[in-house]
Amino acid sequence: IKIMFHEDIYSSQEPELYSPASPGPQREPISTYFEEKVPIPEDDLTKLFSFRKLWAFTGPGFLMSIAYLDPGNIESDLQSGARAGFKLLWVLLGATIIGLLLQRLAARLGVVTGMHLAEVCNRHYPTVPRIILWLMVELAIIGSDMQEVIGSAIALNLLSVGRRIAPAGVVALTRVSGLSSSGLRKLEAFFGFLITIMALSFGYEYVRVAPNQGEVLKGMFVPYCSGCGPTQLEQAVGVVGAVIMPHNIYLHSALVKSRDINRENKKEVKEANKYYFIESSIALFVSFLINVFVVAVFAEAFYGRTNMEVSLQCNETGSAHSELFPANNETLEVDIYKGGVVLGCFFGPAALYIWAIGILAAGQSSTMTGTYSGQFVMEGFLNLRWSRFARVLLTRSIAIFPTLLVAVFQDVQHLTGMNDFLNVLQSMQLPFALIPILTFTSLTSLMNDFANGLVWKIGGGLVILVVCAINMYFVVVYVTALNSIVLYVFSALLSIAYLSFVSYLVWRCLIALGVSRLDFRGSVQYPPAVLMDEQPEFDS
């Protein structure tokens, strides 16, 4: 540990940084992602649009969009189709649009300040709230990691025709891929390749099943849900909770720092914000189409089917997984494991294997972005100054340990059942990303001319309030289904502490939004930002 903290790990060329949160100059941490920065072509700034510049800014948005395609999202999609048909596609569309607006705030914070969200939290929150906030975000990352490993394990199990894959091997596979290093553009291209695999895999299922296109469009653009009950309502809430993920806000605010932007030039900053928004829109449009493929496949083929129908079909085709479906007339319940099985029973082995390949690509791409999220969050909140290897080892060990325990002690069928719990866990952490991002992007002292205007402050506040309320409903529904007095009491005590901390964050957020009368003792101060790549005055 002493070696890790030794001053010699720094390059002599590293600039010092003055942090408003602590006195004296500090050294900027060694970067995990920005060892090179992508240059931006010097086109005429008066041009409204340049494809060359859009290509230069392309990358961070697609890495961010992978969180919209992780195994948890895929499972939410297929359950939406199987339980509600095409009726909830408009919810998916709305959640994706809300996600785009939130990602816009994250990207603007990184572009304008030169700091990502965890670094800004480090400089503006007191020590105790900052540590609590870091722990909450780490919980969200651990939950996401578990879903990614579960998805990879299920995909390998399907590809190996039910043979048990060594759990440690699954974890090793996902972690080795996450720790791989390469050039920045090559790395972004690899993520693009994985997204392409998902698009082709789930696109094949879409073409093979051939859903009714009229019903797809109707479900997407007509906000209705005729004949829906509590099951469909809970599924709609689950769709929103699966799409908007807390750690992704932190990730995107960091990824945009990978482009060489002169932040002293307002025109360049404005241009960067514009191209990042365009790129994010394209990336989330692609992810939305892939999600639609999954929803439509299960809506067309399996909505309204019973266990008996599926069991008979699997027996006729000689499937090795027919015992998964009891011989009764209850409505079919599917997850990403059973989903692959029923596709194989009804549409042939090719459908099963291609589904598994898509799930494997989703798990591997998500675990790599989760690796970066964990590093950015820990480095930002704790201001670590360790060597690259030491930081990667620590940040990923925190997430890999509980994941390894789950993989060792649970079989595949039980693993896939954990996704509901993990979605609830991440839903609870959502306020700890959304409230800070609205707080800091509304500060004129931090964002200067790029601070949120009145419309964004009110609209953003309402959107965050709605999203958090939806996710809290999802949590309440899950807890009430546990049917345990002990768990009810524990949940109540936990809720008191949880809501107290959320109220504290909301209080600071309202002060940042201009409700200064809430700052009774004048104790809340937001000092102006110091850009990460800006040389301080005392530096020769």
UniProtKB/TrEMBL annotation:
<dbReference type="Pfam" id="PF01566">
    <property type="entry name" value="Nramp"/>
</dbReference>
<dbReference type="GO" id="GO:0005886">
    <property type="term" value="C:plasma membrane"/>
</dbReference>
<feature type="transmembrane region" description="Helical">
    <location>
        <begin position="276"/>
        <end position="299"/>
    </location>
</feature>
<dbReference type="GO" id="GO:0031902">
    <property type="term" value="C:late endosome membrane"/>
</dbReference>
<feature type="transmembrane region" description="Helical">
    <location>
        <begin position="393"/>
        <end position="410"/>
    </location>
</feature>
<feature type="transmembrane region" description="Helical">
    <location>
        <begin position="341"/>
        <end position="362"/>
    </location>
</feature>
<feature type="transmembrane region" description="Helical">
    <location>
        <begin position="430"/>
        <end position="447"/>
    </location>
</feature>
<keyword id="KW-1133">Transmembrane helix</keyword>
<comment type="similarity">
    <text>Belongs to the NRAMP family.</text>
</comment>
<keyword id="KW-0813">Transport</keyword>
<protein>
    <submittedName>
        <fullName>Solute carrier family 11 member 2</fullName>
    </submittedName>
</protein>
<keyword id="KW-0472">Membrane</keyword>
<feature type="transmembrane region" description="Helical">
    <location>
        <begin position="454"/>
        <end position="479"/>
    </location>
</feature>
<dbReference type="InterPro" id="IPR001046">
    <property type="entry name" value="NRAMP_fam"/>
</dbReference>
<keyword id="KW-0410">Iron transport</keyword>
<dbReference type="GO" id="GO:0005381">
    <property type="term" value="F:iron ion transmembrane transporter activity"/>
</dbReference>
<feature type="transmembrane region" description="Helical">
    <location>
        <begin position="89"/>
        <end position="107"/>
    </location>
</feature>
<keyword id="KW-0458">Lysosome</keyword>
<feature type="transmembrane region" description="Helical">
    <location>
        <begin position="189"/>
        <end position="207"/>
    </location>
</feature>
<dbReference type="GO" id="GO:0005765">
    <property type="term" value="C:lysosomal membrane"/>
</dbReference>
<keyword id="KW-0408">Iron</keyword>
<keyword id="KW-0812">Transmembrane</keyword>
<keyword id="KW-0406">Ion transport</keyword>
<feature type="transmembrane region" description="Helical">
    <location>
        <begin position="485"/>
        <end position="507"/>
    </location>
</feature>
<dbReference type="GO" id="GO:0005384">
    <property type="term" value="F:manganese ion transmembrane transporter activity"/>
</dbReference>
<dbReference type="GO" id="GO:0015086">
    <property type="term" value="F:cadmium ion transmembrane transporter activity"/>
</dbReference>
